[in-house]
Amino acid sequence: MTKTSLDLLVSGAIAPLLKKNEFRKKGLDFYKTTQDLVFDVNIQKGKVQQQAYFYINIGIYSPELDRTIGIAENGQPKEFECHFRRRIADLINAGQDRYMADTTTAAQITTDLDLAMDVLDKIRSANDLVKLMCERGGLENYEKLVSYLALTDNHTLLKTYIDALKKLLGDDKRWPFFEGKMNEILKSHGKEYGIFSIPFS
User: Fold this and answer.
1) Which of 80, 92, 113, 129 would you call most buried, defined as having the most Cβ atoms within 10 angstroms of its Cβ?
2) Which of 121, 150, 180 is the last residue of a domain?
């Protein structure tokens, strides 16, 4: 089988760097599993006319988070099943959202992956991941996050997260729906407070 430009990029630039950082390849996903977390670097193909390009997606998953809220653990989650998901450009605050499937982009990809590894190296526990979700997750997996923070009585982070969502969505017509949904979650876990009456820890 003839190797494509993307195949050459993966084998020549992406795979060696990720292997050095203890990731293992499975298809177009690279996984790293620690005691508390699963990291996934995913290569997503795309194509416009005759120009092939691809995205690099980052996912972080916490078995502890799912255990705490009563959901079965996922031993090897796909990127879209992770609790925190971002394109690499968003994770490292870079301008470029996608890469051309061309070996001339290898240097840029290597630079971006190195920066991403620096970010991921700081995420070492479920608590680190939850903080990241509160700071940068927006509405993604908000139901799981609110449940986890309520069940672990992490009132400080819960209030921080609610305040961030209110600032993000306060003028949005959808806000009453999300406010009601989060209050339902708190009530379902036996909490007597609402999202705007969270007790101080």
Assistant:
1) 129
2) 121
